[in-house]
Predict the structure.
Amino acid sequence: MYRASNFIPDPNQELLDAKPLRSLAPMFPAPMGVNVNQSSTPPLVCVTPVGQFPTGFGGGSLPAFGSYTPFSATANGVSYGTSANGPIDATPISAYKTRTSIISLDGDDEPYSGTSVERKARRGRPPKNSSADGLNGVKFKRPKPTYKNFVAGKELGFLPSSSADPREIVEAVHMTFEALRRRHLQLDETQDASKRADLKAGAIMMASNIRANSGKRIGTVPGVEIGDIFYFRMELCIIGLHAPSMGGIDYMTTKFGNDEDSVAICIVSAGGYENEDDDTDVLVYSGQGGNSRNTEERHDQKLERGNLALERSLHRKNEIRVVRGFKDPFCITGKVYVYDGLYKIHESWKERTKSGINCFKYKLLREPGQPDGAAIWKMTQRWIDNPATRGSVILADLSSGAEIVPVCLVNEVNHEKGPGHFTYTNQVKYLRPLSSMKPLQGCGCQSVCLPGDASCSCGQHNGGDLPYSSSGLLVCRKPIIYECGESCHCSPNCRNRVTQKGVRLHFEVFRTMNRGWGLRCWDPIRAGAFICEYVGEVIDENKVNLDDSEDDYIFQTVCPGEKTLKWNCGPELIGEESTYVSADEFEPLPIKISAKNIGNVSRFMNHSCSPNVFWQPVQYDHGDDRHPHIMFFALNHIPPMTELTYDYGVAEAEPSGLGSRRTKNCMCGSRNCRGLF
């Protein structure tokens, strides 16, 4: 929806008066049961997503990554002030601890939690003896600028130092959250519990103060890149992108010269209201409120809290982060949140919705010169719906029908017509027939294998837990994962049959600028999702000939980098024993696979010292653990059109002196590039 700046409102529309309706002085929560609000008008309240926990739960034991300090905010090299060019003295109004329940005073499309007593308790001021100085003489406690890498006296070796690269910190925090969430989900399924694992994981991390970018800010967030994708609101909270775990509008009080004002800093357009986002550079965002969660009662929206902050941002002209929500193509009820960069509000009005309430509307325009975010999402969805719309295609299906989903071959760099000749196959060629190899013991489960079933032999082979979630995501890395096979009695729909079903993603083999051919995907890929198998010819480890050309297509189980080794880390926060395996403890397998003559899309995956994919040995059709299938899984959430890479490992000679890989110069270009692999 596009509205000219000089539009004429119709009878159902009303131009807003830009004046504030009330004081913008922030109100802070009072002790439980104390009400100090003497005004009849509702105070400006900002609620942090999760806060203080009972004694012994771990609160305060680990200060956050990126301590909170007052700052002068800049975004894209531009400072803010009373006009677009002056400095902003930004002081968050939510720099205090809140209570356990996750409360939202804003409207949104996710479940509401918390009691009325807790909600009332949030509308007051803190005790007069609060520590540290703050806004308007109010005192509040600030986290220390550095953190101790310990929880309950145990060192958390999987966390980077607080002085590390911001991107590395964000990735480590997010990876820890995902590992903790997957483990909680696995435990809940075993106990037949229905509580949300994402909220559990987020609460534990907040209690342990493991988060990135804890202070609110205007503009960009260090370590968060445009196009990053998320599957839960709590992910946005723990990395400092959007503080409310439910509300769609994040705002803060900040100084504009000598004046203080409450402005919006981030919004999530998730489809809870009639938001219009067909144009990737224009967003018409609906205000919050008016819809009751528990009844069908509806009322007009009020110009308060987030709505008022958006109105003030129109006049202050500050940049606002925008996160757009889209339907998850692999989950009917799920959503994928895409960080789309910085916008500014250019217009606001009020109009009557289809449900009959008066709703505030805000028109935001995307700031120029930013990388594409939501535009890439919408572009790839068009390609998935109609592959013929993809340009620069050399070959519509590189697999020639071998894969269920065609593999597109594209070159937008030069005139090369394709990779060297090879035979495409999706089956590993072993040295001897599978029938002559040791069989894999199967389970006797009827229908499907169930979590927590002590009689399931496949579950016992995997340490007592099924390795995958109900949605097919890998829970944690293991030396070997055992899937159900032909000798099992369970049906093909068993959740323990994931990798053997083959590729289900829309892959694209493309020409890179300086590393030959690469692999990327049109779909979003969730952390822990199966990607593909490394397919080729299993070769005799005692007869490996690593010449220059052959070396490019040989896979060996060389120890990967630290990022891959730390993928499991996180359940230590709930008292579980660490499964971390250091590089010194890592034991490679003897299997070696060459994809020079035969192979699949995996042969095009390049190396990176900061990979987004990792390999995992999997067994399902034979019992020779020395020669398992090599399956690739997503190390983190991977946005569409992001190159898929894994860590080839540090080249070191094996004890036998045979089959060692030759060191090569690394051209991955990552922040943590080792220079060689």
Observations:
- Residues 166-190 form the longest helix (25 residues).
- The CA atoms of residues 51 and 97 lie 5 Å apart.
- The first strand starts at residue 13 and ends at 14.
